[in-house]
Amino acid sequence: MFTGIIEATGNIDAIDTKTSGDAIYQFNTGKLELTDVQLGDSIACNGVCLTVIEKLETGFKADVSVETIRVTRFKDYAVGQVINFEKAMLPTTRFGGHMVSGHVDAIGEVVAIEEAARSIQYQIKAPQDILHYIAIKGSITVDGISLTVNELKKDRFYLNLVPHTLQETIADSYQVGSKVNLEIDLVARYLERLMTNDSALKQG
Question: Could you write out the DSSP letters of every residue in the chain?
Fold first, then answer.
């Protein structure tokens, strides 16, 4: 579990693609503190929960499955791709963002970028099947960043990112047309599940 508060940025150093379609990714984690990281620990990489299989002086290696490559932006990543990193939260972690699972629900697209005083407003187009989970003043995760939705229209939502967020994450590299990993709020997902009468499950 994560909070969506990015701890460091870095990049992909190497990709070892296997004949089976999955791959081993080597990450340079920049200033991320790794002394407390053990093999098997989870680290969110642009919002995708990955497991550490090898620690390195400059970062770590992780397996990325065929399914993860298929449903996330990893299918388009190459060596040099910039990455947001967050280690899994501890029971003592200050909860500054919101509950983030590290499981990507969809890929969104930045469709407009505008200055808004000292912040930058991003308009992100999202697939219709997840838009009903998104609420004004609710939370959403974009490439692992916990953000607040300020406005919502039929095919997109609006975010305002303050200078600190732009400085500490990869969001300042976004351009119109950039694709991003999206994870909806866990609360919205479970509320729908509780309120839906799933007859198929009852029959099973």
Answer: -B-S---EEEEEEEEEE-TTS-EEEEEE-TT---TT--TT-EEEETTEEEEEEEE-SSEEEEEE-HHHHHHSGGGG--TT-EEEEEEPP-TT----S--B-S---EEEEEEEEEEETTEEEEEEE--HHHHTT--TT-EEEETTEEEEEEEEETTEEEEEE-HHHHHHSGGGG--TT-EEEEEE-HHHHHHHHHHS--HHHHH-
